[in-house]
Structures
1.
Amino acid sequence: MIKLLETMTQMTVPSGNETLIHDFIKNEIKDYVDEFETDPLGNLIAHKKGEGKKVMFASHTDEIGVIITYIEENGMLRFTPLGGINAHYALHQRVKFVNGAVGVVSFENKDDSTIKNLKTSDLFIDIGAKSSEEAEKIIKIGDAGAFSGEFLQCANNIISKALDDRAGCVAMITAIKSIKEHKNDLYFVFTASEELGLRGAKVAANRIMPDFAVALDVTRTGDVPGKLKMAIKLGGGVAIKIKDSSFIAHPYIKNLMINVCEKNNIKYQLEVLEAGGTDSGAIHISGGGVPSGCISIPTRYIHSPSEMINIDDLKCAALLATKMIETGF
Ligand code: CO
Ligand code: ZN
């Protein structure tokens, strides 16, 4: 599971480039599902057939990144964010482009206040080119990249880029491999463009029209110094989402999650996230409405290249998904 997480987090998959990770995922789970479909938005849908109600699980494969907007005379690249990046987080990070090129983000130092009020429009990416002609041989307008962030184990925690949401993908893959029995008709969707506004999940849900749905994604924690109180701790177990800014969990799914955790001794905590959303936000208002829930993995420093999760929390998330499927909807 840890090895799988390392491999998956280190892949460069900014929104819009999700098909890059499809062959890898297919190869991991091909022996455990019946068929695959890739839809026009870049969702990978794995179907594990069953007789009962249709259940959709979703975790997003895309990560936050950058897309090139303009190339300066001197060869420096201007960009716009793909997803929620903040200028201070991006400053002096390394960027890996989908085409393999690399660079570093720096800023235009106009005066003493630039750094304080840093905006992404003050930033540029240096790919080592001496001129626009040289830069254009390496990168074209519209090329996308993501920030690099080494995978490290730190006590019982993992530090890496893209744990949002490769951690959810790994939990879902682990569940797919672990299911012993199931009665539902199962759709596991590796969704696209979540970071651009839950776009892939919306389309996938409209295509599948599930009776129930569960997303797997990261959530923030309230256990680091800061003003905003939140009752989620790293190492406190899987988080059962009750509300975020995109949705409120359906009581049936929320209670199913709590009962499954209680019955199988899975450590859990209840989550209310004040700002932020995930795929379940789009899924629950698809079609005529879908009773939905969300399995959250507590994560510190989300959308930085040094996100941190706890290994036991990740195992609890995978186990909760597995046992929900075995219990049935
Ligand atoms: Co995110
Ligand atoms: Zn996410």
Note: The radius of gyration is 20 Å.
2.
Amino acid sequence: MSLFNTTYDVIVVGGGHAGSEAAAASANMGATTLLITMNLQNIAQMSCNPAMGGIAKGQIVREIDALGGYSGVVTDKTAIQFKMLNKSKGPAMWSPRAQSDRMMFAETWRTMLEQTKNVDFYQDSVNGLLFDENKIAGVKTVLGLEIKAKTVIVTAGTFLNGLIHIGEKTFGGGRAGEGSSTGITECLVEKGFESGRMKTGTPPRVDARSLDYSKMEEQPGDEVTEKFSYLDTTKPLTKQRSCYLTHTNQAVHDLLREGFDRSPMFNGRIQSTGPRYCPSIEDKIDRFATKDSHQVFVEPEGWTTAEIYVNGFSTSMPEDIQDKAIRLIPGFENVKFFRYGYAIEYDYFPPTQLKHSLETKIIENLFFAGQINGTTGYEEAAAQGLMAGVNAAHKIQGKEPFILKRNEAYIGVLIDDLITKGTEEPYRMFTSRAEYRTLLRQDNADLRLTPIGHKIGLASEERLLKVEKKKLKTARLIKFLEETSVTKEQINPILERKGLSIINQSLKLYKVAARPQLSLLDFKEIESLAAFFILEEIDNTIIEQVEIHLKYAGYIEKEKANADKLNRLENVIIPQTFNYTKVKSLSYEAREKLTKIQPTTISQASRISGVSPSDISVLLVYMGR
Ligand code: FAD
């Protein structure tokens, strides 16, 4: 069957992180899916840092995996280094991060998509959308094809009218070495969409063979590695590559300052807003003028390549300035460049134009996911892609939208923040954005989400069985600890070794294990516990669950109670026909914002900036509460 004469259930425009997850999700939900992307060699290309995860982002990757998405598996299969960040803090803050082999990452994604039933591929650039009045009908391409579809998911990343800046030079492009995409923005603006401009930047890539590592500090991965996917098909790394740390200095800063008037960010040529939390080196020097040094992480781009990602040195300064400044960093004296750093400006669509399902409010069956919605980061993009893929499939199958609540997932927080509050600068996830972060941990994403993912037909039976086994073993171990007493003779030698106060009488094991300085692994010499571990095949993931339960149950219960309160408001639905302008007891600002955002529940209304508690009381009365 030709692409010309079939109507796909779903067309995904763009094979980046959002598009790849979207295609996988819709296809796995049974929808015939066409992935159209500008270059099939660059599926899920890592445009910037060759790393997945990190603070709050690692939790998102685990959530994607728990729901049945591919990002976690691909990261595990291509990782060259693994670290669990924030291990010294409470478990809500633990965040997995892996460096990946950039080329393997894209190749592995493509292989996994090719092995997914219902996904067709086509390399071309979409330059227009087809409509049937206010409903999407398909796409138009640069090669002149018109391909029909019931739903379309646009995941064009940084490519829409992308403009690359290096010093005084500017040229069109969606990413270094790739053209920009035109037509989509113009077509949507004509239909009444609002668009804006954002910017982001990336550091130079250099040749590892030209660096002097003796002047840098080695940054190895964790001694005991973990992984992202909950599936047994991937394994933790046994061999890793190290990164290295060096620093900028006053001489580097002075040299960069000399070029400020030739930098597009300082001479006013770039007006759009960039990511606050990934600032360029020139931004850092300007904003933190009293700091005479910044960290620079030297990160390998793969197992075998000599290409190095210079993390912390993102810049769009002219090449000659980049060249001279970087040589003043210890270890970089004889550096050879692979690629210069650059900044890119691109179109985005303020995400308040979307529903929770990521379907647009203006055009039915049209979905947006990823950087096009004003986010930054692979993880944020991939999460939106998965949700848009599921929701596009649900839409054509006549099912309810699939929405995750703020107390269920970071993905829920991300989408609710975007569509309720919008964003004026590239949005990245942080643990502080989640009010229920003690519930939304990286260790329990499977417990939270796999049953839901399985129910909608995305997470496999194998995943669900694993979760049920994990729950059962956790409960059994807790029961064992609650029922098993230890004598002071058994326990005191362990406590003394750890420098902790000893006990004077026998105690149940769970009471001692709840002490913050102790791990269950410290009690392995207690025979009954060691025997239980062997008999019940208790592994570290179960031990971790039980320890979190013993040490943090109080906080977890409190957050659950708060979340239940919020969910009561979540259940108060506002009819979409509700006319706020007629409610004169609402403040003027509230009437304006509520009319624009059209919240679906009272809870969502309460999160809109400018809507006060008294406005919410007024609305509650109108809703009969
Ligand atoms: P992308 O990964 O950009 O993928 C979009 C895909 O769509 C591409 O494959 C493209 O070929 C395809 N496409 C686009 N338009 C069309 C069309 N019309 N027809 C067909 N195919 C199309 N993130 C951070 O978190 N921190 C950073 O510091 C950071 N720096 C960055 C620096 C640069 C220079 C760039 C380019 C990106 C940076 N990012 C950074 C962002 C990160 O790359 C993105 O957040 C992430 O890749 C977004 O995923 P996406 O799927 O939305 O889009």
Note: The chain has a mean pLDDT of 94.
3.
Amino acid sequence: MFKTREQLENDERLILSPFAVKSGESLGRAHRDKPHAYRTEFQRDRARIIHSAAFRRLDGKTQVFLNGTGDHFRTRLTHTIEVASVSRTVARALGLNEDLAEAIALAHDLGHSPFGHAGEEELDRVMKPFGGFDHNAQSLRVVELIEMKYPGYAGLNLSYEVLEGIRKHDSSHRLPDGSVLHQPSLEAQVADYADEITYYSHDLDDGLDAGLLTVKQLETVPLWDEAVAEAGRTARKLDPLQQRGFVIRCLINAEVEDLVTTSAAAIRKSRVSSVDEVRRCPRRLIGFSAGRRRKNAQLRKFLYRNFYYHAAVAGVHREKTRLLDQVFNAFCENPHLLGRKARKRLEKEGLQRTVADYIAGMTDRFLLKTAAEISTARS
Ligand code: MG
């Protein structure tokens, strides 16, 4: 015997908090799908995202370091998996729907262009006259329009709740009945903060690993000092080889702990008792304490000043984005060179948007290869 979907949905009603999203109460999908025998709606969403081509390509996209420059630096894919892991931890601790938080986390960066933020800025610059480019909006285009595998429609036909989570910064947030809402679900808010926790910690880790940041520099960052002290309390004799990894572990743990306890208190104080009340709440209920927010801001400032704009990072990106520009122009001049699926969208989406969609989907290496092919064809 296996557990039926109805039983799983019932388990959620019994176990989850009253303000958690229940898969049995999902607001549905744009295209009606027959319910599955033993998978909940959010389990299906998660599977659809993991089995998409855009998800697989995250493996070849830059997080901070150009993809392939180091053997164990984070990529967009490993970043995404870390966000999903933190999301599950926080969601479970707060009695929220883990499957939903995980699905949102797995989809949150699907729209990222190659070459990290430098790539996004460049694509936005060339697309300015045609509506610009933003990776959050692009993630929605990927799951609603660009992925092609299900019969009868374009996109992955994800549930309203996952789309709501991907939309995150869009102010025109509406329920299917048209009513305007202030906030997304708590699961979506959790995935958002998990993203922040994850990049702080792994960017520090990779920056130190690469030798672009030093422990000495970090002594000016209070969060780092606290994590070092905590590591020392937990393990008096720490092998120097384990030091960095264990301090990072302590830092993540402290961030998650603050998020969970602060959010639990805010939820209690707000007295929300349903998802609807969460969505109508004037402010977000998931968040850090004031002290942690301040320290996170200091860390972010430190990372910008010493890491993201470091010549070894930003210089490489600037050079590669020039190629992005060349590839964009080449496809606009020769749209027949676009992939088959992209060419099918040309008429409806317009030339520049189709080219931007195509380039945004590329891995770093595919863009480099395309740029090399274009320059050979021209010479
Ligand atoms: Mg992210």
Note: The chain has a mean pLDDT of 92.
4.
Amino acid sequence: MTAKKKRILSGMRPTGPLHLGNLYGALANWIKMQEEYDCFFFIADWHALTSSYEDTGSIADYVRQMIIDWLSAGLSPEKSTIFVQSHIKEHAELFLLLSMITPTSWLERNPTYKDQITQLSNKDLSTYGFLGYPVLMAADIIIYKADGVPVGVDQVPHTEITREIARRFNNFYGKVFPEPEAILTQTPKILGIDRRKMSKSYDNAIYLSDTPNDIKSKVSRMITDPQRARKSDPGNPDVCNVFEFHKLYTDDQTINEINEQCRCAQIGCVDCKKIMAENLIEALGPINEKRKYYEARPEIVEEIIVTGTDKARRVARKTMEEVRSAIKI
Ligand code: TRP
Ligand code: SF4
């Protein structure tokens, strides 16, 4: 008999179109995992409200765009359960129950919480919902009894709190939940075009949905080896963001040539970038084709969301029956 597949769950907040940082930071890894695990992937639209509660006008469109990005990049509705958090009200019920047993001190000392409050100083994040972000996330995860949660390092404090909450629940009411493990995503070191972390808010991102012209123009503006001022100066690919991109999109032989030629100033950054931009455009070609397909067929996208949500809801309802009976309420 084959062992039961491990269940993996992860989510993304619908804050805008997906960029290459999101692709390599999470999605590419999800696409691999769906071959091996029982995967649940969802759009955390309630979590998007924790920081954009004043301006909610774009969230619904971002949700749809994000599902299209996922499908176009290769997430498969046959292999994975794909759904939207706010369509499954059971998450909110479990969130409420978990909030009764979560000490506020666990939330106040959360390093991600403190970081965000300082970093996003233009927003008033002194809300109850923002403090409770990890409690909602814990509900998202344990309602499906997930074994593993693929996340970036910034989310590890949240998965730790999830484990603590699950343990506390089990101690009080009897064992209902497994303690999920964070699975850290290995990511290539690509940065935004200005060499900062790729992020929508820095305006330095290359999006999966960018047109070939967008890509050419962004790549031409990419900062290369900062020490290389002129074409006649030798460059150092080891510190060059363009070279990191080559490692993802260019064949090995060309990479070796560029590596040598850059170091003895035989190739200039303009030409080097042109080669990379062409390869990147080619790699994104099939994703763009699929996007066009789904954009022209909104009913298929809708159907995928409904099917995935129904499947997830059945699991969530079953867990909630166990939860209510454990709490005797
Ligand atoms: N907090 C996650 C992020 O911003 C999104 C998220 C919400 C999530 N609920 C989750 C991720 C549950 C994993 C599991 O990236
Ligand atoms: Fe970077 Fe290429 Fe310029 Fe070398 S030639 S510094 S690898 S962009």
Note: Strands lie at 7-12, 38-43, 80-84, 148-151, 181-184.
